[in-house]
Amino acid sequence: MRRFLRENTLGLFFLMGFLVTLAAQSIAGAADHNARQLAEGGAPVPWVAYVTSSDFAVDVAENWQSEYLQFLLFIMVTVWLVQRGSPESKQPGEEGARVGKVNRASPAWARAKGWRRRVYANSLGLVMGAIFVLSWLAQSLAGTTAYNNERLAQLQDPVSWGGYVTSADFWNRTLQNWQSELLAVLSMVVLSVYLRQKGSPESKPVGAAHAATSVEN
């Protein structure tokens, strides 16, 4: 157990952080929802009712889809695009997809030939892309319900799923997350050219030249 914990501290740290912040979001979100309910003359709802509501689901899903879009784009564009001096980039001239060396220690599907190797060679992008699409679909479905609840409360007719995904509300929610994720990746790629963090694999060595590319601490 100790060995498992020691060898998986990074993943466990972010898993615990995710669970804690998700729980905290649900509590804060329920409090905010009930405050608005009371201000509008409605009745507060229990925490369980809130976390199973479309309001909570759309808030969670819209963040998930933008995060997975960020990683999907970063994974895919770094196959072909480079940034001179960034540890997040391949060396200029090394653009393109390569399988790399395959030996007995390689995963079974990497050692296989044909469609299995092709699938495995693109499995990270495929899974990230699938999670992005599913979370974006979840956002659109939960968002449609939440949006129609607001419209019905204002004595307006509900809209269809197609009507919602072409609405300003849906794209406002979507694009405000996308632009922040793209800015974060841009900052990481460019700032890591000139700035350092001793001991981090996301940074070049402190003494590395600014032009040094794809160099880890």
What order do the helices and strands come in, and which of them pair?
Blueprint: H1 2-7, H2 9-39, H3 47-51, H4 54-80, H5 108-111, H6 115-121, H7 123-153, H8 161-165, H9 168-194
Poorly predicted segments = none
Beta strand %: under 5%
Order of helices and strands: HHHHHHHHH
Question: Termini separation (Å)?
Answer: 29 Å
Structural class by sheet pairing and helices = mainly alpha
Estimated radius of gyration: 22 Å
Fraction of residues in helices? 55-70%
- Secondary structure: number of strands: 0
Instruction: Give the overall average pLDDT.
Output: 92
Compact description:
This protein has 217 residues and is mainly α. It is built from nine helices and no strands.
Structure write-up:
- The protein is mainly alpha-helical and 217 residues long.
- It folds into 2 domains: 1-52; 54-95 and 106-192.
- Helices cover 66% and strands 0% of the residues.
- Helix 4 packs antiparallel against helix 7 (123-153).
- It is elongated, with a radius of gyration of 22 Å.
- 13% of the residues are buried.
